[in-house]
Design goal:
With 388 residues, the chain is of the alpha/beta class. It folds into 2 domains: 176 residues, Rossmann fold (3-Layer(aba) Sandwich), CATH 3.40.50; 188 residues, Rossmann fold, CATH 3.40.50. The protein has 14 helices and 13 strands. Helix 3 crosses helix 4. The longest helix has 18 residues. The radius of gyration is 21 Å and the shape is globular.
């Protein structure tokens, strides 16, 4: 007797290529099409980059026009109707919800609007929203919403120990289980340009934007969406604290709603000749070897994919001690950890790495070994499949 094909409906709030989208793309592109029928429903907020990746991988997807990131009673009500209609049409065995908004609305629909359903509801969160740098009332609201909706979900997946422990402490309790499943990448599929070629391509992009790059000895790099939780303002301020004799520029790959603020910060600190924001790049990871040191200055994280990619590229890394980062990096062994919101500490760690060739090489090698042996895509997919 042949095994029944399992239908899985994934719902995610935004269409840009962030961490949750990267997780979904990595997972669904690995699932056996003989075992699973997959549909990904994507909210209307974002630049649509995620949709292009789904189309490239030939993964079925649909857009939910009223599913939006910010709370809006009118749009949220209409989004529940869209989700209900989609569930009735697709008839999934498992509803797999990604991100806070999709998690709340999707589980609400499954609990109160789909009568007689045996639908399994899995919720995967890449970092609790209430840990974002928001006003206190908004944090309290999202703690309440997560606790309220937890009972509408069979399983909640966290990708770092910090958030897992927080869920237990706050009594965010699903019907069946809380699961800790780390992100993973496939090193065999990672393709990096050689350092000289990557630097040349980066400089071309700076020139195309009208920038002039002096011949710096070192390139400091970061890849991130321009959101407050990414802490890019602290990295920009850190450049002020580098020793005057340090010949280095900072390249930031990414884009987002914080761009104007970050640009104003660069101008305010008279750093236009040292900091270049080159926009979002397709397959940004291929340019990583252009960097002599990679910096992740986040004030809040789940488990950042950019960290795994930088480690896979054998880069020495300076990162903040938030989210899963301390679970991946051991300071002094495979990277250097600093406290969040501390530009001086970031600058000091960058200086330590750039001034010591042996340390720079050793940190990169150990980072690569960590990904190779502990954070494989195969392991992540296997653990997720067990819950579908």
């Amino acid at each position: 007797m042949e095994d029944k094909i399992k239908r899985v409906l994934f719902i995610i709030t935004q269409s840009e290529m962030g961490g949750a989208q990267r997780f979904l793309l990595n997972l669904t592109s690995q699932l056996n099409q003989d075992k699973y029928e997959i549909l990904i429903a994507v909210g209307s907020d974002g630049n649509g980059e995620f949709l292009k990746y789904l189309d490239r991988e030939k993964i079925n997807r649909i857009t939910l026009p009223n599913l939006k990131r910010n709370i809006s009673p009118w749009h949220d009500f209409r989004a529940t109707l869209e989700i209900k209609k989609l569930i009735k049409k697709f008839q999934p065995d498992t509803l797999f919800l990604n991100s806070s908004k999709a998690g709340f609305l999707g589980s609400f629909v499954s609990r109160f609007m789909i009568h007689g359903s045996r639908l399994k509801v899995v919720y995967r969160i890449g970092g609790w929203s209430f840990n974002d740098p928001w006003p206190k009332w908004k944090k309290v609201l999202w703690v309440f919403l997560e606790k309220l909706s937890a009972g509408w979900k069979d399983c909640i997946i966290l990708n770092n120990r910090h958030d897992f422990d927080q869920a237990k402490k706050l009594k965010i309790k699903p019907r069946k289980s809380l699961e800790l499943i780390y992100n993973g990448i496939d090193l065999k599929k990672m393709e990096f340009l050689e350092p000289d070629r990557a630097k040349l391509e980066i400089f071309k992009k700076i020139s195309a934007r009208g920038g002039n790059v002096f011949q710096a000895e070192y390139i400091i790099g970061s890849v991130a969406n321009f959101y407050k939780p990414k802490g890019l303002e602290y990295l920009i301020e850190a450049i002020k604290f580098l020793p005057k004799e340090t010949s280095a520029i900072l390249i930031i790959v990414g884009d987002g709603r914080e761009r104007k603020y970050l640009e104003s910060l660069i101008v305010k600190n008279n750093l236009r000749s040292k900091i270049f924001m080159i926009g979002a790049l397709n397959d940004a990871s291929q340019y990583l070897k252009a960097f002599d040191v990679f910096v992740l200055p986040s004030v809040k994280e789940g488990f950042p994919w950019s960290l795994l990619e930088a480690m896979a590229a054998k880069l020495p890394i300076v990162a903040t001690s938030v989210g899963a980062i301390p679970e991946v990096m051991e300071s002094g062994k495979n990277g250097l950890l600093v406290a969040p919101k501390n530009p001086k500490a970031i600058a000091d760690s960058i200086t330590t790495i750039l001034s010591n060739d042996k340390l720079r090489q050793e940190l990169g090698i150990q980072a690569h070994q960590t990904v190779l042996f502990k954070f494989s895509l195969e392991k992540m997919v296997r653990e997720i499949e067990a819950l579908l």
